[in-house]
Amino acid sequence: MSSHVLTDWRPEDAEFWRRSGRRVASRNLWISIPCLLLAFAVWMVWSVVVAKLPLVGFDYTTNQLFWLAALPGLSGATFRIFYSFMVPIFGGRLWTTLTTASLLVPALGIGFAVQSPETPYWVFVALALLCGLGGGNFASSMANISFFYPKSQKGNALALNAGLGNLGVSVVQFVVPLVITLGVFGTIGGEPQTAGEGTRLFVQNAGFVWVPFLIVASLAAWFGMDDIAAARASFAEQSVIFKRKHNWAMCWLYTGTFGSFIGYSAGFPLLMKTQFPEVDALAFAFLGPLVGAVSRSLTGWISDRWGGGRVTFFVFVGMIVAVYGVLQFLPLGDSAGNFWGFFACFMALFFLTGVGNASTFQMIPAIMRKDMDRLMPQADAATKQRQSDKESAAIIGFTSAIAAYGAFFIPKSYGTSIAMTGGPEAALWAFMIFYATCVALTWALYTRKGGHLHDVEHKARTSAAPLAPAE
């Protein structure tokens, strides 16, 4: 059997964890993170590229450009549904390697396609859909890392993987506007395109810049990551999650957190440009995803400490307040609005989505561990733990797939609201109503006295010792 297959993996055994488990888990986590960051960068690259295409000779309508920006969200969410179940079938090492290497196709494709204004529109449509491969990677990455850590550190480990991976959204919105102004690949990268007023742009660098990093990350995954033998499961074994009510409840809640994060990330530049046209939107756009990604990676310990259900409840309350604040600072009628008030409220929203992304994913293993007592009353503790881990991993992947449709629906909601009412207010009111349903659902199912997590979280709080961070 390969030396990369772990046949003895007992993260809940303190001695095993101290002796070798922590080191192995950390190595897999810190290879997974840059792979996921690159996946998010490729997934969201069109949010920047579409704004530059008209400048270099592509005569596309606004609607055509909108679809190029939206299609990666649709395909990425759909890929996630399938990717959710792949790690237990193929193993985390092989799957991470293949999915990271697959991103070379859209990255190289964009680099070549944008160099000629004669490139057919359908080619860009195909490349936009292929960029969704990057969105799919999140589901399998999170499922994979969930197997490596003990329950006391699982929330923090998942928060680090997801939060630092989510930085890819901010990185692409910061890096691409810089590299397209520079001939960083010399003659190998192709000739520059001439934009207005004689400005030279290397739009192909928006794709090419990721290629060397993708190659290195793919090799690191193959030579440095491991598979856990006990984590293997067929699709039929994993599909039991579709019978679990908590799977569907967490799909709803995670749509409220991650769906908001990725949707706001995709729509933030356009919303700023339409509501405050005097502001250079791209100069500020990357800050929102940056705040959301950092808050996710740094706040996982809060949910491990206080309980994901309680943190999630207050996150949604805060998001309602923040959206209401955004509404107060938008231009309306004769009022020009207040950009900095609008911007501050959106930064609060991004921060809260990050905290909520960590807390909802902390809830899932806790929910399934408790549910195993009801579902498998005759099984021994080890069997319950294995089944809980498998179902938790599948639910984490599947909920991330459903939530990823926010990358399409939030920007589309802005557009529809503006088209029908002249402003984005109707969309924002709809988001507030949705967050209110998330508050109600979290309380009714999980945090009220008698709720599924009430006793677990209160018991954990009264007996908790300070947790060591995931390495």
UniProtKB/TrEMBL annotation:
<dbReference type="GO" id="GO:0042128">
    <property type="term" value="P:nitrate assimilation"/>
</dbReference>
<keyword id="KW-1133">Transmembrane helix</keyword>
<protein>
    <recommendedName>
        <fullName>Nitrate/nitrite transporter</fullName>
    </recommendedName>
</protein>
<dbReference type="Pfam" id="PF07690">
    <property type="entry name" value="MFS_1"/>
</dbReference>
<dbReference type="InterPro" id="IPR011701">
    <property type="entry name" value="MFS"/>
</dbReference>
<feature type="transmembrane region" description="Helical">
    <location>
        <begin position="246"/>
        <end position="267"/>
    </location>
</feature>
<dbReference type="GO" id="GO:0015112">
    <property type="term" value="F:nitrate transmembrane transporter activity"/>
</dbReference>
<feature type="transmembrane region" description="Helical">
    <location>
        <begin position="164"/>
        <end position="188"/>
    </location>
</feature>
<keyword id="KW-1003">Cell membrane</keyword>
<feature type="transmembrane region" description="Helical">
    <location>
        <begin position="393"/>
        <end position="414"/>
    </location>
</feature>
<comment type="similarity">
    <text>Belongs to the major facilitator superfamily. Nitrate/nitrite porter (TC 2.A.1.8) family.</text>
</comment>
<feature type="transmembrane region" description="Helical">
    <location>
        <begin position="65"/>
        <end position="83"/>
    </location>
</feature>
<dbReference type="InterPro" id="IPR004737">
    <property type="entry name" value="NO3_transporter_NarK/NarU-like"/>
</dbReference>
<feature type="transmembrane region" description="Helical">
    <location>
        <begin position="121"/>
        <end position="143"/>
    </location>
</feature>
<dbReference type="GO" id="GO:0015291">
    <property type="term" value="F:secondary active transmembrane transporter activity"/>
</dbReference>
<feature type="transmembrane region" description="Helical">
    <location>
        <begin position="29"/>
        <end position="53"/>
    </location>
</feature>
<feature type="transmembrane region" description="Helical">
    <location>
        <begin position="311"/>
        <end position="333"/>
    </location>
</feature>
<keyword id="KW-0997">Cell inner membrane</keyword>
<feature type="transmembrane region" description="Helical">
    <location>
        <begin position="95"/>
        <end position="115"/>
    </location>
</feature>
<feature type="transmembrane region" description="Helical">
    <location>
        <begin position="208"/>
        <end position="225"/>
    </location>
</feature>
<dbReference type="GO" id="GO:0005886">
    <property type="term" value="C:plasma membrane"/>
</dbReference>
<keyword id="KW-0472">Membrane</keyword>
<feature type="transmembrane region" description="Helical">
    <location>
        <begin position="279"/>
        <end position="299"/>
    </location>
</feature>
<feature type="transmembrane region" description="Helical">
    <location>
        <begin position="426"/>
        <end position="446"/>
    </location>
</feature>
<dbReference type="InterPro" id="IPR044772">
    <property type="entry name" value="NO3_transporter"/>
</dbReference>
<dbReference type="GO" id="GO:0015113">
    <property type="term" value="F:nitrite transmembrane transporter activity"/>
</dbReference>
<dbReference type="InterPro" id="IPR036259">
    <property type="entry name" value="MFS_trans_sf"/>
</dbReference>
<keyword id="KW-0813">Transport</keyword>
<keyword id="KW-0534">Nitrate assimilation</keyword>
<keyword id="KW-0812">Transmembrane</keyword>
<feature type="transmembrane region" description="Helical">
    <location>
        <begin position="339"/>
        <end position="364"/>
    </location>
</feature>
